[in-house]
Amino acid sequence: MRWINVQYSQRVDVPLLTSRFETDTKLRIIFPYFTAQQPVPDLCHQEEFECGSSFDDVVSLDKCEAHVTEHRKNPDDQVFKDYFGGLDEESIRDNFVVIYELMDETLDFGYPQSLDAKILREFITQKSNRHEIAPRPPIAVTNAVSWRSEGIKHRKNEIFLDVIEKLNLLVSGNGGVLNSEIIGAIRMKSYLSGMPELKLGLNDKLMFEATGRSIARGKAVELEDIKFHQCVRLARFENDRTISFIPPDGEFDLMTYRLTTQVKPLIWVEAVVEPHSHSRIEYMVKAKSQFKSRSVANSVDIVIPVPHDVDSPSFKSSIGSVSYLPDRNVIIWSIKQFNGAREYLMRAHFGLPSVSGENPDRWKAPIEVRFEIPYFTVSGIQVRYLKIIEKSGYQALPWVRYITQNGDYQLRMT
Amino acid sequence: MAQPPPQRRGSAPPQNSQYFSEQGKKGEVNELRTLLRSPAVERDPKRKREVIKKVIAYMTLGIDVSPLFSQMVMSVETRDLVVKKMVYHYLCSYAHEQPEMGLMCVNTLQRDCSNDDPMVRGLALRNLCSLRLPILLEYIQPLLRGALKDRSAYVRRTAVMGVLKVYHMDQSTVRSSDLIDVLYDMLRDTDGMVVSNCVVVLDEIMLEEGGIAINKAIVHHLLSRLNDFNEWGLCATLKLAARYAPESDDERFQVMNVLDPVLRTSNAGVVLEAIGCFVQLTKDLPELHAQVYERLKAPLLTLMSKSNNEGLYCLLKHAELLVFRCREVFASEYRQFYIRYDEPACVKHQKVQLLAQLASESSAEDILSELREYAGDCDPSLAKAAIRATGVVASRLRSKAEACCSLLVEFLDLEYSYVKAEALLVAKDVLRKYPERRGDVLPSLGRYLGELDAEEPQGRAAALFLVGQWGEEIPSAPYVLEPLIDAYATETSVDVKLALLTATCRLFFKRPPEVQNMLGRLLDAALEDQTSSDVRDKALLYFRLLRRDVNVAQRVISGRDPCSIQGAFAEDNCAVMDRLVDEAFNTLAVVYGETPDQFVDRAHRARDKPDADDEPLVSNDAPLVSNDAPPAAPVEDSFDLLGSEDVAPPAPPSRSLVESAGSVTGDLFQAKWAAISDQDERTLRVGPVTQGADLVDAMLASLNVHTMASGEVGQELKFFVYARDSLGALYLAQAVISTADSSTQLTVKTEGAGDASFFAGVVEEGLRACS
Questions:
Q1: Which residues of A touch B130 (CB under 8 A)?
Q2: DSSP B571-635
Q3: Would you place residue B303 in the very low, low, confident or very high pLDDT band (cuts 50, 70, 90)?
Q4: Domain B666-769: what homologous superfamily?
Q5: Which of A215, A285, A263 is nearest to A373 (CA)?
Q6: For residue B262, which residues of chain A lie inside 8 Å, CB to CB?
Q7: Quick one: pLDDT band at residue B660, thresholds 50, 70, 90?
Q8: What are phi and psi of B566, to 5 degrees?
Q9: Which residues of chain B lie closer than 8 angstroms to A12, CB-CB?
Q10: Using CB atoms, which residue from B191, B301, B346 is nearest to A142?
Q11: Is-contact B409 B393, C-beta < 8 A?
Q12: Where along the sequence do coiled-coil regions lie (chain A) (predicted)?
């Protein structure tokens, strides 16, 4: 492990940016935020807790106290990543001037200033040769709507709405669902000119109740905990559950929500393991899709753990392909298209060394499943309308897409 | 990038190692100087930029490029903003080393401060203030004042930060001028960024006074502007709101309604800060507490399911605090705390602990079966944590003790010895709390003990404790001990030896004929034990006790009933948790599980500021007891184990205050004061106290009542005193003597078996002498 101090301090002896390179070249930046003359408690020796896994996890010290403030936005617009694509030793080396510029704008005397990558981009341009025109401070820096600059123009006014739901699931060894929750996000890609005013309608149960409207068709969804992008007028939502906002330009998460309802596992996997110690081990894996037959799950990967000392794998499956990854001690059963209400079987056979140091119980990793089901949401959430009003009165096209993905989807093995 | 090479500026150049000395580097620096001076470079902006970039790169590497200062100052005259920024950066790094040279760039910076472009104005002002040159203060001040009224918000917010920088260069300049008032006015600025900068700057400048002064108007104004702030501004503002105590319940609800939407933001820091606000706002309203916690539950759970592992750990730590305050909050959501295979160990441990706290009548069964799963984990520390959690569930829920015990027995039958050992350790505590459940564990105890290997001394000591405690119910008890006694010479663990001694002795009192012989052998071996003085001393103590009087020995060694545990275990540290909720919510302190004063260096701490009333006015931090007075050990003194027949403590009337009470410093006093909740308040009627604080001090000291701190507030004399009595009880008291109406309010807290009225009598006597 190597330490590098990029000294960027306006105060004596205080490295503001300390970047640490781990052996696996994964970079963690510890970005202590100083006020007055306080020290940072020894973060580096906290083995269990490493503050700041990315640029915008900022650790701050204030008064005699130390604050952990996680400054996490959409992972896509983390400032550094946004500028350099990725964050590693190489990119820091190549871009140190830009980093200095960024640090200069994002932090003043240890206090964070504007950290929104989109705004920063307007006055710190990445390619230095683009600097020939003297940049103006973006209006947004001084604007009431800090996330959107005025005078944005797009030839085609379009807005894309992705409703993405991730299913977190934990199934116990005996087949009982221990925990299931849906983490949903409405992701927008906005390419709209001017200062558009948007209003989004969902089949939100509480909204129906608030407006006293009866649920005409389909079902309404009760969203448990909703979080919004800062552009959404929260007070308005509190009053009548209307989601109204002026969107930032480009991609952002408009809202995220969470539901903890009992969900039937969309893809059910059962693995029967027959170990014949010191000679071979056999797997019989059954995968069953428990969603409607008109839906299709794409690129399904079923990851099944195996002991680390197995050899000579052989597989037989009714669909898809199976591969053994010795470095991860798993087999992956990949199925390109998994139709709803189907059931498939796979058999795997391995040899075991005659001498084994390991107890067979010791590799109890769970089965993981990855999948993506388009045109389907587990919760049943639907976009009813998206109204776009702009003073120039252009017609804009909203595109809506629904996807259900696996989140943390684990089935424990018996 | 390599480590910065060591710099040895000013040292004599080494003679031989020319190539590796600084001279080589100097060569590079010289080269850069030539380049900077060259007219060709001057003409070509692109080359110029490259050269400057190289200078900055060297600076980053740790090479001393300060000799280039004058060339760099000249380069600041440029239209290229990137070059300008780099040069500014250079200046900020080196100016404080060369103040005279620094003056050279003032003109340019001053000019830039009146540039048409707000970007340049802001940049120049920011860097001017960052030069850290106090001699520039006279130039900075007028520029700063102008910038605070600039029409561009970007410049204004930079100027606000500038005030803070000036403050750190020279505190008196800021304090004596009206800058602070200007900043207070600027809280009404139209730009959110400016406002939030004002808040943090004022907060830091007013640090000594306990941060920015808040009143209803300021707080309400800031809360109405919440939408204008970015996440950081929100955090700073919410921290203020948490400090604010609303005047009425209506206002409280008003504030809470404003804060409610903030819980919908997706930033963990902001949400935690808002949660902290809610907790503080409803601190005194227990009936609201439950509702508020219910409201906070969902946002916290959502954050947990979205966070990365570091964030998750931090959130779990906060959840732990909330659970501590109100267990019911997450009770129904316990499934959210089931561990996932790929989480890091720290998160898993935290979740296991929380699960144990969350278990309720209805969920205990699910949680226990989940814990059973974890106990089989391949990570021994997690398995142990799960077993400990089982014990916690047992001690919390009496009705589930049976289920827990049967689970523990299941663990005892697992084949891993660390699981067995931990299960024995936990079983010991559970049985101490529920002795009636001992039938589950005792019958196979001998087998468990035999199966444990030498690497688990704690587990074996726990098993031995059980044998000593309930030996009469284990038919084979003597035969459990005998092999251990025979193998005494090969035993390496002191814990096991000590436990073996106690267990054998206790068993001896219960079953003398069977054990007498082996006890003799054990004492023999232990008395000869050269490896541990503890073991030898204990054996000696037992031996002498037994020789003198077996009955006394039995009373001492077996004790009355060491088993019975009422209430919580001493380890459940409530005081720290309470302080964390109240003082350190959303800070690193929560993550560390320590209060800030435990890990922040004293020198860096703002002056301790509990409520102004409690603050000692004159603090005597030095130990009050001089070194030659031996520390008091009253318990041992009055308790002659070997000499007297009567082991009972001396009768209460013989209470008196002893001269030395140990040293109680201000910090210790405060900590103890906060830790003891029982207090005895009384009004002493003594004549008007006519003497000054010093005399009262002396008078109390003559009665062995020591003064930790004292002082005068208006019409009141305030004393913080402490004393120790002959039974070892520590008294802490606060006396407020009103000189106006000659009444004295005395608040007494006692640690140990103290008698508050006795102590009050002593104080009264002392005060009477002063009147």
A1: 10, 109
A2: T--HHHHHHHHHH-TTSHHHHHTS-HHHHS-GGGSPPP-S-GGGS-SSB--S-SS-TTSPPP-HH
A3: confident
A4: TATA-Binding Protein (3.30.310.10)
A5: A263
A6: 234
A7: low
A8: -105, 140
A9: 96
A10: B191
A11: no
A12: none
Domains defined along chain A, listed by start: 2-123 (3.30.450.60), 158-263+378-411 (2.60.40.1170), 267-374 (2.60.40.1170)
> Residue B395: is its pLDDT beyond 90?
no
Taking 90 as the threshold, does the pLDDT of residue A189 lie above it? yes
Under a CB-based contact definition with an 8 Å cutoff, are residues A377 and A295 in contact? no
Q: Strand, helix or coil at B459?
A: helix
pTM: 0.71
Count how many Cα atoms sit within 13 Å of the Cα of residue A95 in the half-sphere of its side chain: 22
DSSP B638-707: T--TTT-S--SPPPGGG--B-S------HHHHHHHHHH----EEEEEE-----S-HHHHHHHHHHTTPEE
User: Closest by alpha carbon to B685, among B601, B760, B632?
Assistant: B760
Q: Please name the residues between 12 and 31 in chain A that touch chain B, using a CB distance below 8 Å.
A: 12
Q: Nearest CA to CA, how far is A133 from chain B (Å)?
A: 9
Number of H helices, E strands in chain B: 40, 5
Task: Match 């699910």 to its residue by tokens.
Answer: B366
E strand or H helix at B365, and its extent? helix B364-375
Between positions 336 and 365 of A, the ones with CB within 8 A of B are: 361-365
Q: Which two tokens stand for residue A377?
A: 């949401």
Looking at beta carbons, which residues of chain B come within 8 Å of A59? 588
Instruction: Please state, in angstroms and rounded to a whole number, the distance separating the CA atoms of residues B154 and A141.
Output: 7
Q: For B95, list phi and psi in degrees, rounded to 5.
A: -60, -40
B74: three-class secondary structure by DSSP = helix
**Helix (H, G, I), strand (E, B), or coil: what is residue B515?**
helix
Length of chain A: 414
Using DSSP, how many helices (H) and how many strands (E) does chain A show?
7, 24
ipTM greater than 0.90: no
Q: Of B62, B232, B346, which has the smallest distance from its Cβ to A49's Cβ?
A: B346
Find all residues with CB under 8 Å of B464, minimum gap 6, and list them. Answer: B449, B481, B484, B496, B499, B500, B502, B503
Cβ atoms of B321 and B590 within 8 Å: the answer is yes
User: Do the Cβ atoms of B376 and A68 come within 8 Å?
Assistant: no
Nearest residue to B237 via CA among B274, B186, B185, B275:
B274
Substitution target from B60, B112, B200 for chain A, most A beta carbons within 10 A? B60
| Cβ pair A270, A279 in contact under 8 A | no
Nearest chain A residue (CA) to B198? A111
Q: What is the pLDDT of residue A216?
A: 54
